[in-house]
Fold this sequence. Notes:
- This protein has about 170 residues and is mainly beta.
- The chain is about 0% helix and about 40% strand.
- It comes from Eiseniibacteriota bacterium.
Amino acid sequence: MSTLVLTTSLETAGAADRTTDSRSPARYEVRVPGPDSDVVEVQATFVLESDVIGMVVHSSAELPNGEADLLEQLEVRDERGQALEVESLGYGDWRVTNGSQGMAVQLSYRIRLEHDRYSWGPGIDEVAYRNDDGLFFTGGSLFVLPDAALPSGARVHFDVPAGWTETLP
């Protein structure tokens, strides 16, 4: 049996809810497509604090933007499902074109599980890794946040392969 371990201060939710408005807490759905998957898929809904969204990233000589260089297929949509343009600001930050404080958005993106291929200043246990027991993530390696601040009351739902468990130590 494999385990997905996530170290973060987010609280878990029993089910994902893909809608949000200015009164709803942020929601994240983390999906591991299969036991040998080389990506993790994330969908999020939250309210923007500004027009900037970001990750908490760590330094790596090989990856100028830290863990953000392992993020791919970032899409941001407004409440109506209309695509919003996103401009990379570097080092794990993106500007949401036409985004503004109080705007509810929906994000989808994938994280490539290649963290163990690179050297990390604080060490691999501060980012993400895979071993025979499963996957280990810190929240900073996994979540794009409104203005790099953890939303109060955020909820996370995991969709993992059959036989897997998830743990929040």
